């Protein structure tokens, strides 16, 4: 197996590009400030950030199905930043001897994902070069007129006119001005992409598993589109959210903390895992929490009960897995044991 390409994303990307774009990187909370007030201030600053109009995801591999991973990652990433996608762009680089049929196989997987997402593909750049396998990039493009947060505000404004509620913007400001504990809610399953990869590429070694058990793996494809969860989150108390891919939920949590410049306590047993993931990881001695996890979203909220109720009612897997803290420590708790989260840079399946 060849090494996997990894894009620079999250806080590392922010630090490298902030001078280019004129963005202000969030400082640590002011020393001596109350914990809840400091967390609320970080969330207020994050909420004021400009909504991006582009998000992309790049994956390397020899199998065309990874193109679907890239499409879902890009669309989820843009929506989690508060912008609805309106179209997709693709870039595929293959080896110098790659046949048309190989390109076609990759494009078919992109087309399948785009069809499920009901998004048009605006362009596709196809190249041959000195690479092994494919380098596949999906770019989700949004419109400033189609922000998910704007949509939520418009819906709440309609209800406000009927005397049912105030606009979501006013509600969010009110939530951040009140003393509150800010919880982390996770949707989807840890290691979903990695599980699909293991069952696809090491199928002979898993053939002894019951047929109905292996069938459950295919259901994980449906979890890669996080659109429903993200839209529900914005409308039901989510104040900030982020998606993740390579490096798994541990990397996602680290990047969440870095983006907000906050610490956290995370309860390891509460992180959602499918039994298929547990079984595959045990057989191949892989850490499921450091394995590719596209389709999962980490949300910050002061109203976990409201948010979870909305997600569960819609059939979305979700759980409260931790809380934000004003210090720099990022702690993983497992019953009586605890350890510190580290900045993981590689995926458990990368060699």
Descriptive notes:
The protein has 351 residues and is α+β, with helices and mostly antiparallel strands. The protein contains 12 helices and 11 strands. The strands form 2 sheets. A 7-stranded mixed sheet has the order 6-8-5-9-7-10-11, with helices on both faces. A 4-stranded mixed sheet has the order 1-4-2-3. A hairpin with a 2-residue loop joins strand 10 and strand 11. Helix 3 (66-80) packs parallel to helix 4. 42% of the residues are buried.
Overall helicity: 40-55%
Average pLDDT, rounded to a whole number, is: 82
Main sheet: strands, sense, barrel = 7 strands, mixed
Listing every helix as H and every strand as E from the N terminus to the C terminus, the arrangement reads HHEHEHEEHHEHHHEHEHEHEEE
Strand order of the largest sheet: 6-8-5-9-7-10-11
Could you say which overall geometry the principal axes of the C-alpha atoms support? Answer: globular
Can you count the helices?
12
**Radius of gyration from CA coordinates:** 20 Å
Strand content: 15-25%
Low-confidence stretches: 150-170
User: Tally of extended strands?
Assistant: 11
Specify the structural class. Answer: alpha+beta
Ends: how far apart?
7 Å
């Amino acid at each position: 197996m060849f090494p996997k390409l990894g894009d620079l994303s999250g806080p590392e990307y922010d630090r490298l590009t902030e001078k280019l774009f004129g963005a202000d990187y969030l400082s640590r909370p002011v020393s001596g400030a109350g914990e809840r007030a400091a967390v609320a201030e970080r969330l207020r600053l994050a909420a004021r950030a400009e909504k991006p109009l582009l998000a992309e995801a790049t994956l390397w591999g020899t199998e065309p199905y990874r193109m679907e991973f890239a499409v879902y990652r890009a669309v989820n990433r843009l929506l989690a930043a508060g912008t609805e996608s309106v179209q997709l762009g693709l870039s595929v680089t293959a080896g110098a001897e790659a046949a048309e049929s190989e390109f076609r196989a990759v494009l078919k997987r992109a087309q399948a994902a785009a069809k499920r997402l009901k998004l048009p593909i605006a362009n596709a750049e196809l190249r041959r070069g000195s690479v092994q396998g494919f380098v596949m990039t999906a770019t989700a493009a949004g419109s400033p007129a189609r922000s998910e947060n704007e949509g939520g505000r418009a819906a709440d404004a309609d209800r406000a006119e009927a005397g049912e509620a105030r606009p979501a913007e006013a509600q969010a400001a009110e939530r951040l001005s009140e003393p509150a504990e800010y919880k982390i809610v996770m949707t989807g399953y840890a290691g979903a992409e990695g599980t699909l990869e293991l069952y696809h590429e090491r199928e002979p070694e898993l053939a002894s598993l019951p047929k109905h058990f292996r069938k459950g793996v295919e259901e994980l494809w449906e979890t890669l589109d996080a659109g429903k969860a993200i839209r529900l989150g914005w409308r039901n108390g989510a104040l900030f959210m982020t998606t993740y891919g390579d490096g798994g939920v541990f990397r996602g949590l680290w990047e969440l903390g870095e983006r907000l410049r906050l610490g956290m306590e995370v309860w390891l047993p509460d992180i959602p895992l499918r039994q298929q993931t547990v079984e595959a990881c045990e057989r191949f001695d892989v850490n499921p929490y450091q394995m590719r996890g596209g389709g999962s979203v980490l949300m910050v909220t002061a109203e976990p009960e409201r948010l979870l109720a909305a997600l569960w009612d819609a059939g979305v897997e979700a759980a409260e897995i931790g809380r934000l803290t004003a210090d720099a420590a990022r702690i993983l708790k497992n019953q009586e044991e605890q350890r510190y989260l580290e900045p993981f840079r590689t995926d458990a399946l990368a060699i």
